[in-house]
Design brief:
This protein is an alpha/beta fold. The protein has two domains: 3-157, NAD(P)-binding Rossmann-like Domain (Rossmann fold), CATH 3.40.50.720; 162-257, ProC-like, C-terminal domain (N-(1-d-carboxylethyl)-l-norvaline Dehydrogenase, domain 2). It has helices at 10-21, 34-41, 73-79, 137-150, 159-189, 198-208, 220-223, 226-235, 240-257, and strands spanning 3-6, 28-30, 48-50, 63-66, 87-90, 107-113, 130-134, 154-156. An eight-stranded mixed sheet has the order 3-2-1-4-5-6-7-8, with helices on one face. The radius of gyration is 22 Å and the shape is elongated. InterPro entries: 6-PGluconate_DH-like_C_sf, DUF2520, NAD(P)-bd_dom_sf, OxRdtase/DH_put_Rossmann_dom, TM1727-like_C_sf. Residues 1-104 form the Putative oxidoreductase/dehydrogenase Rossmann-like domain. Residues 128-253 form the DUF2520 domain. It comes from Rufibacter hautae.
Length: 267
């Protein structure tokens, strides 16, 4: 199977590395920035770099993976022309497969790896779940086959379920990472070493996969420790955004503990 990579960012970089190590032929790397395409294509012997969106006149592939930001997908879809019969799939967790419906003479689908990607961080593709959706049996079969080359967990998933998964992933990954960044900033402001929190963070993550997280919630919000909560809010007075975030999360923890739905308060 030949797979062309459309994009040269974090996801594309890891796809190139993973597919290359799996022995998949990558004849083409596209980026709207020629230098970026050249850098990534340079990691694969024989791969051609391009910023041209008429993919019919370039080295062809059976599968084209659109590993570009969600905001760039509509314009690419509007301008790109692919070889007849190719499978074209985007890698977004949030965008519908139907976004590709206007592409002519190709099979379309979704190839969504459930992971956070940074170029500088190595990853083990075998442990990354890949969610696949195909608009036709041909697309579904091709994407399932490709997914199994990379990962031990490949799941057929429709667009609605994928969106729900993506929202959950934002809570589990993006929001959690932001909170760790807040914690790091607070420590640095107090001139305390960041690694003081490492055992706590690792234990929290490990415990979250051993028990339902809500059932093992700890801390002053869960205990209803008003004195501690007020002391923390006092400390955060000089950082109103963090103080507000603390209040919102405290209220959420308390409402969950009371088995009440949390909708948040109106400003």
């Amino acid at each position: 199977m030949k797979v062309a990579i459309i994009g040269a960012g974090n996801v594309a970089t890891h796809l190139v590395k993973g597919l290359r190590e799996a022995g998949i032929d990558i004849p083409l790397v596209y980026s709207r920035t020629p230098a970026s395409a050249q850098i990534l294509a340079g990691q694969v012997p024989g791969a051609q770099a391009t910023d041209t969106t008429d993919f019919r006149i370039l080295p062809t592939a059976q599968v084209y993976l659109l590993a570009i930001p969600d905001g760039a997908l509509p314009k690419l879809v509007e301008n790109a022309v692919f070889p007849a019969g190719a499978v074209v799939a985007h890698t977004s967790g949030a965008q519908p497969m139907e976004l590709l419906a206007s592409l002519a003479v190709v099979e379309t689908g979704v190839f969504y790896p459930v992971q956070t990607f940074s170029k500088e961080k190595e990853l083990d593709w075998s442990r990354i779940p890949i969610c696949v959706e195909g608009a036709s049996p041909k697309a579904e079969e091709a994407l399932l086959t490709l997914g199994k080359v990379l990962s031990e967990q490949v799941v057929l998933m429709n667009g609605r379920a994928r969106k729900q998964l993506h929202v959950a992933a934002v809570f589990a990954c993006n929001f959690t990472n932001h909170l760790w960044g807040v914690a790091q900033e607070l420590l640095q402001k107090a001139e305390l070493p960041v690694n003081l929190l490492e055992p706590l963070v690792l234990e929290t993550v490990q415990k979250a996969f051993q028990f339902p997280p809500f059932t093992v919630q700890t801390g002053p919000a869960r205990r209803g420790d008003t004195n501690t909560l007020q002391a923390h809010l006092q400390l955060l007075q000089t950082q109103p955004p963090y103080q507000h975030l603390y209040q919102v999360l405290t209220e959420s923890i308390q409402r969950v503990a009371e088995n009440e739905p949390f909708f948040g308060k109106q400003a």
